[in-house]
Structure formats: structure tokens, C-alpha cells
Write a structure and sequence with these properties.
The structure holds 2 protein chains of 2 kinds. Helices cover 79% and strands 0% of the residues of chain A. Classes of the chains: A mainly alpha, B mainly alpha.
Chain lengths: 225, 296
């Protein structure tokens, strides 16, 4: 309980610091600001994970799910712009809940970038995949119907791309114009559409069996309730 | 006493290296004066050359050049803010300010990407995780075992693929849908196989006492005197830069009207501080080269 209070206090301090810096800086640094906000969100989830009571089994299962999500690009290396990572993260969120979904999404992004190279996109990718798993977990009572899942996956195909575009937009906020915004988002549309369709196809064919496998496993070992 | 096989910038403590990348990245985002950014670009290229002779940089160079060319050429036509009008294009004004902004934007993105190329060479794997293991031990542990699982899963995936090939389920022929289905089936087999194995490794961890006390780990890095002195120097330089930056120096006013490119006295002070900060790896490598030369 003591720990929780200090963490709450820390979060409040960090948020007020951000607000103050926003008012005081004469030149508005939206990129630094957005990275600070993302950092705080990670901080909240990771510290919750640190102080939670957790079994060794659960940590290892989270790790293997993140590794599975990260490696799932490998069999599809010959098929450009097809990757089931998002599908894996969504199913993890559906079965194991919001927090595990966030952790697996964020860790999968770090792990795959350790092999492919970190870049300025790493925090955004962590954030996008993390919130994808988080939202799948939060909305899971609405997502029992398959068409709802397909809709969810389709929407996230686009939202993921939109979040990833944000790092270009926020780093050039002074330069903002609607044409600039439109050109950035228009150039990513084909890629986002491919991502969305991929998610839908994988959900139609595989979501039932994947959810069943994970659910059975969760019940058998009594994990991550 | 740990004898490290690495020399130069690589032999420094991960904290010092991380602070260098953090500060340099922050300053690249913070200052937008083209002369600042251009000199940082030159220094960062030299830093990359000092790491591996520019091998990693060479793979990126074409992408970087094309990307910055697109940004510089496209920005004046997409954004029509600014007051100094150069000419009209299809009834829209093309301004000097937008052209200038395109140049600073291209410099900024190229700088950040080159900084990350260097980051990937220096702070890879263990060093990167070590930084977080102090603050977030369990998260760092989670990432660590997850990284360890990747080669294991890859090996298993190869075995599954071989069996699939014999059964005639291919990833290279057939319709797109059947290929996607085959690929995902391999992932599903991998999942069921690995989940059971994961429980076993977790049980073996538990049997060896995981979770009984605080987690300890072998730490191959130690803060030496030179690490401390460099860390403090970097911090002072960074604070000076930020202090000057909050006063508005080191920045170019672009919108609504292009400010002057001239340097004031404090601009020079900031410029020198920033150059010293960014050139930190070069100074270390240079000093070691000189020592080596005179030791013979």
C-alpha cells in the first residue's frame, strides 16, 4: 500500500511537471512532450508489473507470448506487408486481460527491435502494440462475437498506422498544415489497409482456435487471472 | 577486477553511454538552428566512422539521402505559411520560411536516425537492458528471457517448417490465402509446443528458488573514476545548453517570418558546449589514439 501511494504521488508530480513545462517553454516542443507522456504511461504499467504479486510461471508465459508475437513475422518473410504480430497481441489481450495484453505488446516491440534495430519509432511502436493489447483486454466482453473481433482488428490496422505517423507530425508541429497532415496519412494508407485486412483474415481463420488454446492453458495452470 | 576487452567509447560504463545518447538526442530535438544541426550531423558521421569504419552507416545512406531530398523539395509546396514569398505555384504561395523549415526538418530526422545507428552499435543487447535492470528489475528480466526465447523459437519453427514441407504445405507456392493459412498453422503449432515447455522452465526456475528474495544479478560493469568525471562533464554541458535554450538561443525563428541566422555571443557559447557534448566519443577515441602513438 505504501508503495502504491508513492507511485501515485510520482505520477502526479510527473504530470504537473509536464503541464508546467508546456506553459513555460516559449517554443513548444511537441515531440519532447509526447515522448514524456508515452514515458509516463509505460512507467505506470511497468511499475504496476514490478509491485504485483506474480508467479514465476506467469512471467515465463508472458515472455514466451511476447517472443511468439515478435517472431511471428518470420514465416511470412516472403510475403511483404503481411505480419500476424497484431493478431497474436489481440488474442493475448482477449484471453489474459488488459494488463498482460499491454505488457506483451510493448515487450514484443522492444524484442523485435533488438533484432531489427532500435529507432525513433521504438517508443511509438511499443505504445501502439501495447494499447492494442490493452484495448483488446478492456473490451473483451464485447468481443465474443467473431464479427466484432474482425471489426476491432480492422480498426486497429488503421489506428496502428496512425499512431506510427504521429512521430513525424509531432516532430514538425510548427510546420503543421492540413496538406502536410493529409500527405503523411495518405502515403501510409495502402500499408494500413494491408495491415487491417491481414488482421481480419487471421481473425476469421484462426481466432477461435488460438483463443481456445490459450484459454485451456490458462485454466489448466490457473494463470494470470 | 574486470578486464574488459573493449577499448575506446565501448569500454565506458553503460550509464555514461546512455546519458550521451539521451542528451544528444534531446539537444537535436531542442535546437533547430541549421548551423547547429549541420555541425552535429558532421560530428555524428565521424562518430559512426570511429565505431566501425561506417559499415552500418553505408546501408542507410541511400535511404537518408532520398528521404531528406523528398522532405526538402516537398515541404515548400505542402506548407504555405510564412511571409517571404518566393513565387507562386498553381495559385499557392511558395515561401522562404517553408523551404527553410524543410531543411531543418530533414536535418533533424537524419540526425536522429544516424544517432540511432550509433546507438545500435554501442548499446546493444545486455548493455541496453542493464540500464533498466536497476529501475525496473522484473521488466528487464521479462525482456531478457523473451530475447532468449527468440532463437529457441526460431529453431523450433525451422523444424516445424521442415515437417510441413514434407507434408506438402508450402509457403512459397499456392494462393495467398493458403500461404497465410500455412504460415499461421506453423505459428499455432509453435505456440502449443512452446507454452508447455515454458511451464517446465518456470517450474525449474521455482525449484532453484526464484522469487524467494530480491533478484541478484552478475554485473560486469563498474563505474570508474573516468566514468564519473565524464558523466558529470556531460551533465554540466547539457544543463548549460538547456539553460541557454530556455532563453531562446540556439533556435531559429522560422514562422511567421524567418529570423536572422547570425550568432550572438551566447549562441557561440551554446554552440561550443553542444559540439563538445556531441563529440564526446571522438574525444575519447582521439585521446586513446594519441596515447597509443606515444607509448611506443
Amino acid at each position: 500500500m505504501e508503495k502504491r501511494k508513492t507511485i501515485l504521488l510520482l505520477i502526479i508530480i510527473l504530470f504537473s511537471l509536464i503541464v508546467v513545462s508546456f506553459i513555460l517553454f516559449p517554443y513548444q516542443h511537441y515531440l519532447i512532450l509526447s515522448l514524456a507522456i508515452i514515458g509516463i504511461i509505460f512507467f505506470i504499467f511497468f511499475t504496476r508489473f514490478e509491485i504485483r504479486k506474480i508467479k514465476a510461471r506467469e512471467i515465463v508465459i508472458l515472455a514466451i507470448l511476447a517472443a511468439t508475437a515478435a517472431i511471428s513475422r518470420v514465416p511470412f518473410a516472403g510475403l511483404p506487408s503481411i505480419q500476424p504480430t497484431s493478431f497474436v497481441i489481440i488474442t493475448v489481450g482477449l484471453v489474459f486481460g488488459a494488463e498482460s495484453g499491454f505488457l506483451v505488446g510493448a515487450v514484443a516491440a522492444i524484442v523485435s527491435n533488438i533484432f531489427l534495430g532500435q529507432g525513433p519509432w521504438t517508443p511509438w511502436q511499443m505504445f501502439a502494440w501495447g494499447t492494442m493489447g490493452l484495448s483488446a483486454g478492456l473490451l473483451r466482453m464485447f468481443l465474443c462475437k467473431k464479427w466484432m473481433q474482425c471489426f476491432f482488428g480492422f480498426i486497429w490496422g488503421f489506428v496502428f498506422g496512425w499512431i506510427m505517423n504521429l512521430w513525424i507530425i509531432t516532430s514538425n508541429a510548427q510546420n503543421f498544415s492540413w496538406e502536410f497532415l493529409a500527405s503523411v496519412y495518405f502515403s501510409s494508407i495502402s500499408h494500413d489497409l494491408a495491415h487491417a485486412i491481414c488482421n481480419v483474415v487471421f481473425i476469421i481463420i484462426f481466432s477461435t482456435s488460438w483463443v481456445k488454446i490459450l484459454q485451456r492453458f490458462k485454466r489448466k495452470h490457473g494463470l494470470l487471472n | 577486477m574486470v578486464i574488459s576487452m573493449e577499448s575506446g567509447f565501448r569500454s565506458y560504463h553503460p550509464y555514461v553511454q546512455f546519458c550521451y545518447y539521451l542528451f544528444a538526442g534531446f539537444l537535436i530535438m531542442y535546437f533547430n538552428h541549421p548551423i547547429f544541426l549541420t555541425s552535429v550531423l558532421l560530428l555524428l558521421i565521424l562518430v559512426n566512422l570511429s565505431h566501425d569504419g561506417g559499415k552500418a552507416l553505408r546501408k542507410w545512406i541511400l535511404i537518408l539521402v532520398i528521404m531528406s531530398a523528398i522532405i526538402i523539395l516537398l515541404n515548400p509546396f505542402l506548407v504555405s505559411r510564412g511571409t517571404t514569398i518566393l513565387f507562386y505555384f498553381r495559385g499557392k504561395q511558395v515561401t522562404l520560411e517553408a523551404a527553410m523549415y524543410g531543411i531543418t526538418m530533414a536535418l533533424f530526422i537524419v540526425n536522429i536516425l544516424i544517432l540511432f545507428i550509433s546507438f545500435n552499435l554501442i548499446l546493444n543487447g545486455n548493455r541496453f537492458l542493464y540500464i533498466f535492470s536497476k529501475f525496473l528489475p522484473r521488466t528487464a528480466f521479462l525482456i531478457m528471457i523473451s530475447i532468449r526465447f527468440v532463437p529457441l523459437l526460431k529453431r523450433r519453427l525451422d523444424q516445424i517448417s521442415e515437417v510441413h514441407l514434407i507434408r506438402g504445405m508450402s509457403m512459397t507456392t499456392g494462393s495467398l490465402k493458403s500461404r497465410m493459412k500455412n504460415g499461421m498453422l506453423r505459428m499455432q503449432i509453435l505456440l502449443t509446443w512452446s507454452l508447455e515447455e515454458a511451464v517446465q522452465s518456470a517450474d525449474s526456475m521455482k525449484a532453484r528458488g526464484y522469487g524467494l528474495g530480491n533478484k541478484t544479478s552478475y554485473i560486469p560493469y563498474k563505474m570508474k573514476k573516468r566514468d564519473w568525471s565524464w558523466l558529470i562533464t556531460l551533465c554540466i554541458l547539457f544543463c548549460l545548453c538547456i539553460a541557454g535554450g530556455t532563453l531562446g538561443y540556439g533556435k531559429l525563428m522560422i514562422y511567421p517570418e524567418l529570423g536572422t541566422l547570425d550568432f550572438f555571443l551566447i549562441d557561440w557559447v551554446l554552440f561550443i558546449c553542444m559540439i563538445m557534448l556531441v563529440a564526446f566519443p571522438l574525444m575519447i577515441e582521439g585521446r586513446e589514439k594519441i596515447r597509443w602513438k606515444f607509448s611506443r
